[in-house]
Amino acid sequence: MKKVIFLVDMLSFYASVEKADNPQLQNKPVVVSGDPKKRSGIILAACPLAKKCGVQTAEPLWEAQQKCPNAIIVRPRMQRYIEVSYQITQILEQFTDLVEAFSIDEQFMDVTGSQRLFGDPVTIAKKIQQAIMEGTGVYGRIGIGPNKVLAKIACDVFAKKNDQGIFQLDHTNIQEQMWPLPIGKMFGVGGRMERHLERMGIQNIGHLAQFPVHLLKKRWGINGEVLWQTANGIDYSPVTTNTHNHQKAIGHQTTLPRDYETLEEVRVILLELSEEVAQRVRLQNYRGNTVTVGARGASFEYPTGFHRQVKLASPTNFGMDIFQAAFKLFCAHWDGLPIRSVGITLSQLQPADFYQLSLFDFSLRKEHLSQAMDTIRSKYGPTALVRATSLTKSGQAFARAEKIGGHYK
Amino acid sequence: MKPNKLTPGYNLRWESSRMMLPEHKQVLQRHQKELNTKTKPILDEQQAVIISRRITDSINRNMNVKIQLFDPYQDSFILGKIQKLVTEQGQMKVSCQDKVVWVRLDDIIDIQMIEDDLD
């Protein structure tokens, strides 16, 4: 039986949630924006009324205000958006048990087996739109395809633009609908890839679909073939509910409130990030073997930065172990220029239930210590116990605890 | 061979490009876990009789037992010897390989006697 996959995408999700929660905003242009005094002061979402004035997502708040002076600015409430997204997941689960969140405002679903109960794909899509609107007040657009990649393109390129908010793309209409599109519109092709492909004479998706696949493979390996498959509407990935269970890496990254210029300052943030990573790794009962440090320079004109990793002697879930490795790496690779953002990741995760003990590292004491810290923090909050350096002016522990994904809860 | 983005049946193609907040992930993981919760079965009267007989039998014959306990998320078993039965408190004391645990009689779903030694 031919599969029927949906990609459900919420229209200006954050702004729509705010409008649904506060009816007074209903007919006014609304933008959700981070703190204008800090670097997060960019537009996270703009409602259709604000977009009509030319407001774009990710532009600085002051620019948006110039375009749309009467726009109402709302502070993000990340926790609430997660809640609503979860609520939508549950609504979708009334139609099928196969629902996979792809991001906070996009979810895949496999309705192949639901057609006898709910009707043909377009009918199901309409019912879903209605159910989401009734349950949350958010308008959803739905791309329909025989696999995930076509559902995604159907949604991004067509359903978002038409009045129905629903579009079906499959192998009968990709040649006429999808192939004439410029190559940059294809899922998986970013700005740089677009230029590369254009230089090879590939202007639209159809050109890529008919391009000899071995040449693409030769140049980009697996990713080349993935692109070619996308252009031909091929994708064998299942919609799976357990895709969020097994984690390969746990990391934290932060954009600093101002550029950090000295090693002493960066050291503070590295320690905080290490502790946060370690705590999350312990929470999920893992240990990790590889520490990765990434940093980005402050200047946009001359982008600098690095991304390096090191393998540890034995797997760990202690903040200090991660910090020491990370700090050493940072010192070795930092060019001394001001830093805009840093991140630390622990990967090669393995279950913490059993592990090779190290002869030279007395881990039992550290284990007790971290256990005690975790207990205190889970009882009294993440900032109940912080490193003394977090109290210095470069510390971010308190600011980070109030945020999700870099924005206010 | 290690699966890659082209391997059918795997989700790597999408996992590599998605954006998920850890806090959002946590909510979904909890949801998946709740979906699979089991309700406690109601034991048949005769089944209850069999279980209580096996408990006394194993104590009398000093034998090891495998006890299946109710757990909403997974099948849970303990292996050991029943040392003491305290019916007033509805509990029994079981010595396992390296520790002693108290088991609530209400939690027992099934019990099997084991012929050979545990060690």
TrEMBL record, chain A:
<keyword id="KW-0548">Nucleotidyltransferase</keyword>
<dbReference type="GO" id="GO:0042276">
    <property type="term" value="P:error-prone translesion synthesis"/>
</dbReference>
<keyword id="KW-0239">DNA-directed DNA polymerase</keyword>
<keyword id="KW-0479">Metal-binding</keyword>
<dbReference type="GO" id="GO:0000287">
    <property type="term" value="F:magnesium ion binding"/>
</dbReference>
<dbReference type="GO" id="GO:0005829">
    <property type="term" value="C:cytosol"/>
</dbReference>
<dbReference type="InterPro" id="IPR001126">
    <property type="entry name" value="UmuC"/>
</dbReference>
<dbReference type="Pfam" id="PF00817">
    <property type="entry name" value="IMS"/>
</dbReference>
<dbReference type="InterPro" id="IPR050116">
    <property type="entry name" value="DNA_polymerase-Y"/>
</dbReference>
<comment type="function">
    <text>Poorly processive, error-prone DNA polymerase involved in untargeted mutagenesis. Copies undamaged DNA at stalled replication forks, which arise in vivo from mismatched or misaligned primer ends. These misaligned primers can be extended by PolIV. Exhibits no 3'-5' exonuclease (proofreading) activity. May be involved in translesional synthesis, in conjunction with the beta clamp from PolIII.</text>
</comment>
<dbReference type="GO" id="GO:0003887">
    <property type="term" value="F:DNA-directed DNA polymerase activity"/>
</dbReference>
<dbReference type="GO" id="GO:0003684">
    <property type="term" value="F:damaged DNA binding"/>
</dbReference>
<dbReference type="InterPro" id="IPR043128">
    <property type="entry name" value="Rev_trsase/Diguanyl_cyclase"/>
</dbReference>
<dbReference type="GO" id="GO:0006281">
    <property type="term" value="P:DNA repair"/>
</dbReference>
<keyword id="KW-0238">DNA-binding</keyword>
<dbReference type="GO" id="GO:0009432">
    <property type="term" value="P:SOS response"/>
</dbReference>
<keyword id="KW-0808">Transferase</keyword>
<feature type="active site">
    <location>
        <position position="106"/>
    </location>
</feature>
<feature type="binding site">
    <location>
        <position position="9"/>
    </location>
    <ligand>
        <name>Mg(2+)</name>
    </ligand>
</feature>
<keyword id="KW-0460">Magnesium</keyword>
<dbReference type="InterPro" id="IPR017961">
    <property type="entry name" value="DNA_pol_Y-fam_little_finger"/>
</dbReference>
<feature type="binding site">
    <location>
        <position position="105"/>
    </location>
    <ligand>
        <name>Mg(2+)</name>
    </ligand>
</feature>
TrEMBL record, chain B:
<dbReference type="Pfam" id="PF08863">
    <property type="entry name" value="YolD"/>
</dbReference>
<protein>
    <submittedName>
        <fullName>YolD-like family protein</fullName>
    </submittedName>
</protein>
<dbReference type="InterPro" id="IPR014962">
    <property type="entry name" value="YolD"/>
</dbReference>
